[in-house]
Amino acid sequence: MEFAESHYYRHNARILIFLGQWPYQSSMWNRIRQFFIHLTIFSVISVQMIKMFVSWGNVDIMIECFTPVGVQVTAVIKSINLMINQSKIRSITDHMQADWATLKDENELTILRKFAEEGRKMSVAYAFFLFGSLVIYLLVPLIPSILNVVLPLNDSRQRAYLYETEYFVDREAYFWWIVLHTYIGTILTICTVVSVDAMFATYVQHACGLLAIVSDNLEKTAGSINWAKFDPDVPLEEDEFYEQLKTCVRNHQEVTKLAILIESCFSSAALFQMVLDMVLVSVSLLQLLTKLGQYDQMYRIIQFNFAQLFHLFFNMWPGQKLINESTIFSEAVYYSGWHGFSFRCRSLIKIIMMATARPLTISAFKFYELSMENFGAMLQTSLSYFTVLASLR
């Protein structure tokens, strides 16, 4: 199956190709696209950082600059992380294509399709939510300019900007150039975040599908035990389950290696991202507190908070899925009726039991597991930070 043209993966592949992050693109075109995208995002970060330094001491302006800068820095970290791990990303993609090509059993393909479709739907929902939030985020500042044309007043309404910036030019004279620059930078930021997160979820979802296939095969093997003819000392040539269990062991080892490879690609960026996410949620809540009564600004900030929470949830969800499937496989091993296998088959079951003693997980640089439990803990921590910041303001 051609990964980039597959029904399950083509949307992810196209946006990655646009951003120059697709592992099978020409390296020259990759570098050119990445250079201009990073240059654009960094230029937007720069004008906001300048505004922060120029307005040092003005807490409201500093907070307003910090939230978009945090998202843009997150996008840059994600993008650079992909560039650094491009060879690993290609290895994972090769692994996925090889799995689709080698699997022949229709039941196994059905399981893999189920997980791939679930990953596709979740990625599409994530993209729609973030891009929908982006549209709202971009449109609200343009409302005064639109109303000046559609419903003009004697005095023009005051123009609004996407966020605070400093270009050292007349802002009114260069209004549309500033809007164009900040909007392009923001769109590229969200495109980067969506593409990397969707890729991560797709990879983990594939590993979950492979794990579900191993679980299903193990359950089928255990379900075919003939207790009437049970013989723990059956000769090797008559042991019908030995090769099947060996295959289960090998396949589980392959899934474990794949999960470790995925973690090695994304764990470093995940740590920075989680720290930034907690700070961003806290600071944006504080920003909401400062904008009470300014309903247009409040609406944008509330929408930003929902998008940030969904972003955090989406990054935790794949890790929880892997834990769930790993736990299901562990239960399948323990309830496999191992006492109905031969002694040599029991040795293989022991190997699997030892391997499943701890569920497969994706961690943030070995410090923090990506799971729903830790998602709740991060929200609690963010609210605690917000309480502290609000009391100090």
Count of domain modules: 1
Q: What is the strand arrangement across the widest sheet?
A: 1-2
Number of helices: 11
Residue fraction in strands: under 5%
Unreliably modeled segments: none
- Alpha carbon gap, first and last residue: 57 Å
Helix content: over 70%
Number of strands: 2
Principal-axes shape call: elongated
The helix-and-strand class reads: mainly alpha
Largest sheet: 2 strands, antiparallel
Write the layout of secondary structure elements.
Elements lengths: L9 H10 L7 H28 L4 H26 L1 H17 L3 H34 L3 H8 L24 H49 L18 H49 L4 H40 L8 H13 L7 E2 L3 E2 L2 H21 L1
Antiparallel strand pairs: 1-2
Subcellular location: Cell membrane
Keywords: Cell membrane, Membrane, Olfaction, Receptor, Sensory transduction, Transducer, Transmembrane, Transmembrane helix
Family: Belongs to the insect chemoreceptor superfamily. Heteromeric odorant receptor channel (TC 1.A.69) family.
Explain this structure.
By secondary structure, the protein is mainly α. The protein has one domain (3-139, 188-392). It is 75% helix and 1% strand. It has helices at residues 10-19, 27-54, 59-84, 86-102, 106-139, 143-150, 175-223, 242-290, 295-334, 343-355, 372-392; strands at residues 363-364, 368-369. Helix 5 (106-139) packs antiparallel against helix 9 (295-334) and helix 8 (242-290) packs antiparallel against helix 9 (295-334). The longest helix has 49 residues, at 175-223. It is elongated and about 95 Å long. The mean pLDDT is 87.
Précis, in short:
This protein is an all-alpha fold and 393 residues long.
